[in-house]
Amino acid sequence: MLAKELDMRIVGFALDGKEAVAQAQTLQPDLILMDISLPTQSGIEAARQIMRLVPEAKIIFVSQHRESVVIETALAAGGWGYITKMDAGRELLPAMTAVVEGKRYVSSGLPAVDSTESPDA
After folding, report:
1. Which of 20, 47, 72, 105 is least crowded, fewest Cβ atoms below 10 Å from its Cβ?
2. How much is the pLDDT for 118?
């Protein structure tokens, strides 16, 4: 799906949280898709570290977790977006577009969270 988007290019892939941090520091991506449940280090902790190392990167969490406390924690860790894996087929590209434009994006079927402020506000 992402390969079909002409304005987007996949520059890296990580299998765990520590590798995600290292890849982000090396590759300096504009946008990062991050799972929460990662081996060696959670996606939330990896996001916190990435935000310190690559503050201009924008993170979208793609996760099976639907609990509002998890969503709020992920957004507070530096996430610009949060979508469920179940909704990714229809919401990933709109989420990516919104986040690249500097807007927050949270899957429509998730519990209400305060998603009006951008992470750097």
Report:
1. 72
2. 52
